[in-house]
Amino acid sequence: MPTAPPAQAPPRRLGEHGLAWAFLLPSVAVFALFIGYPLGRTLYLSAHANDLFGAPSRYVGLRHYTDLLASAEFRDTLLTTALFVLLTVVPGVLGALFLVLLLESRIRGVRLLRSAFALPFAFSVASASVVFSVFYNPASGVLNGLLSQFHLGPVGWLTDSRYALLSVAASTIWMNLGYNVLVLSAGIGSIPDEITEAARLDGASGLRLARSVTVPLLGPSLFFLVVVSTVNALQSFGQIHILTRGGPDGSTRTLVYSVYQKAFAYGSSDFGTASAQAVVLLVVVLACTAVQFGALERKVHYA
Length: 303
Hints:
The chain has a domain at 72-125 and 164-302: MetI-like (MetI-like fold). It is mainly alpha-helical and 303 residues long. The protein has a two-stranded antiparallel ribbon with strand order 1-2. The chain has helices at residues 14-46, 63-69, 72-103, 110-118, 125-135, 142-149, 164-189, 193-201, 206-217, 219-234, 238-243, 255-263, 271-302, and strands spanning 48-50, 56-59. Helix content is 69%, strand content 2%. The chain starts with 13 loop residues before the first helix and ends with a helix. The longest helix has 33 residues, at 14-46. The chain is built from 13 helices and 2 strands; from the N terminus they run H-E-E-H-H-H-H-H-H-H-H-H-H-H-H. Helix 3 (72-103) runs parallel beside helix 7 (164-189), helix 7 (164-189) runs antiparallel to helix 10 (219-234) and helix 12 packs antiparallel against helix 13. It is found in: Cell membrane.
């Protein structure tokens, strides 16, 4: 017998399309206003020279980009940015993982410790940076005071190019610690108790339990933290501005801070070069995110 043709969905009426666009219009307008227009304006400025007041004067094409690629200062800035990302993301995520696994141990006062380790999340970048500037003070800082107890000379934590980037990275790790601990604690809380109890019955405990059960199941949370921490490190500005202002000798000048210096600092208005650097920063962020999604997300899914 001939089969009946499949039923077709009724065509959508024009009013339904209009209603859908009415709901989407506010989001599209906000996206265009705060994302589309600034991005388009940045691309426009990067392709134009500017006068002393920062207004675009003439079209120069890709000259700003070629000048950046030929600049040794810009290459040093990219290297400093990469070092800053490595010094903050890797210790920050691994340190938070260690603390969360430690907090899972059955010890007294674990709730108090959880609150203490999550406390940095309550500090703003500005307030935390001011606190660390007091710690790093070469004359009356806490760190040099501790060194003096061991008859060691003072260290220029923020004034010596050998220690400045490490010092800013250490403060950034502390600022991000609370957020990282909260995310990983939530990840551990989502692990079913049946899995953990089954592993314990099989004889797994301590380091073996963490390595074989807890850490693999924390893969999605760790992947999320690595991506977010990388993007945040590439965009870090407040702590660098408060603690070192990119110095000494440019040792803490990251790409974001270089954009600020070219566009606004010390009366500068080189918006063309600053916009070109901002475009490079956008490309770097997108490239890092794409690599992490391509490499880490696949491992998370197949783990």
